């Protein structure tokens, strides 16, 4: 644990799927997909990755002009790329902003995260596609995003850093008599009482059921006798009528 850090230094889908980075088996299919993926960063992307910010959770109505207006307050911007759908041309809700100086980049990274733009709280981080070794995007099962409802959360990024693992001592379970000798003796001593109580309970229950059965039987006999008397009275009435 000496080299443990809350932010991933190298992307590993298996670790990203673990809240503390210690999982050894994938817990969802997306992790398997990311582990089997052979992703190569987009060669068509230009610019200096060390000076580029990733801005996500944007309002779909936010434009490049609005982003330039907001992020230019931190320093001179060289380029803004708002990612859009190739077919519809609509915004996908994230963008890349390249600064001219590292000082401006660090200032924006520090102050612009969780900034509200067009009624949306945005997320700001460094670009990871070309700077983090082994990076796998979310569409291939990687990334540091995901929804709690789907059970595909990813950790190790700025939004969800790893939690420090807790090494619990080997605590013995007293339920199986692994605790102290006093507790073990107490359990043994109390065993007879519980067994006796269970037997008494079963006997009383059998007794109650027997009495209930007799009462039901008595009730059935009474009903049968009443029906016989009614039939006999009916026959007497018929005889008198004749």
Automatic annotation (TrEMBL):
Occurrences of domain RRM (ranges): 51-129
Q: Which InterPro entries match?
A: Nucleotide-bd_a/b_plait_sf, RBD_domain_sf, RRM_dom, snRNP35_RRM, U1_U11-U12_snRNP_70-35kDa
Cited Gene3D superfamilies: 3.30.70.330
Provide the Gene Ontology terms for cellular component.
Answer: precatalytic spliceosome; U12-type spliceosomal complex
Keyword terms, alphabetized = Nucleus, RNA-binding
- Coiled coil segments of this chain: none
Q: According to its UniProt record, where is this protein located?
A: Nucleus
Predominant location category:
nucleus
Give the matching PROSITE patterns.
RRM
Residue ranges with Basic and acidic residues bias: 194-242
Region feature Disordered, mapped onto this chain: 170-242
| CDD domains reported in the protein's UniProt record | RRM_snRNP35 (cd12237)
Molecular function per GO: mRNA binding; snRNA binding
Cited SMART domains: RRM
Q: Which SUPFAM superfamilies match?
A: RNA-binding domain, RBD
Pfam families, per the entry: RRM_1
Tell me which Gene Ontology terms the entry assigns under biological process: mRNA splicing, via spliceosome
* Name of the protein in its database record: U11/U12 small nuclear ribonucleoprotein 35 kDa protein
Q: Which organism is it from?
A: Mionectes macconnelli
- Please name the gene that encodes this protein: Snrnp35
């Amino acid at each position: 644990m000496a080299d443990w850090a809350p932010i991933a230094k190298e992307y590993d889908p298996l670790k990203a799927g673990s809240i503390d980075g210690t999982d050894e088996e994938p817990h969802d299919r997306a992790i398997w997909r990311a582990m089997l993926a052979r992703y190569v960063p987009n060669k068509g992307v230009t610019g200096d990755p060390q000076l580029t910010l990733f801005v996500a959770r944007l309002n779909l109505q936010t434009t490049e002009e609005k982003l330039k207006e907001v992020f230019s307050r931190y320093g001179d911007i060289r380029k803004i790329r708002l990612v859009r759908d190739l077919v519809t041309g609509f915004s996908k809700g994230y963008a890349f902003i390249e600064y001219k100086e590292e000082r401006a980049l660090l200032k924006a990274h520090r102050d612009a995260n969780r900034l509200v733009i067009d009624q949306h709280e945005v997320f700001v981080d460094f670009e990871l596609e070309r700077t983090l070794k082994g990076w796998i995007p979310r569409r291939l099962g990687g990334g540091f995003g995901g929804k709690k409802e789907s059970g595909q959360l990813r950790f190790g990024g700025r939004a969800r850093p790893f939690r420090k693992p807790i090494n619990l001592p080997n605590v013995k379970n007293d339920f199986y008599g692994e605790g102290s000798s006093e507790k073990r003796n107490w359990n043994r001593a109390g065993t007879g009482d519980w067994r006796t109580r269970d037997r008494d309970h079963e006997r009383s229950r059998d007794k109650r059921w027997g009495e209930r059965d007799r009462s039901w039987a008595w009730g059935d006999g009474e009903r049968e006798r009443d029906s016989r008397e009614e039939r006999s009275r009916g026959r007497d009435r018929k005889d008198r009528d004749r």
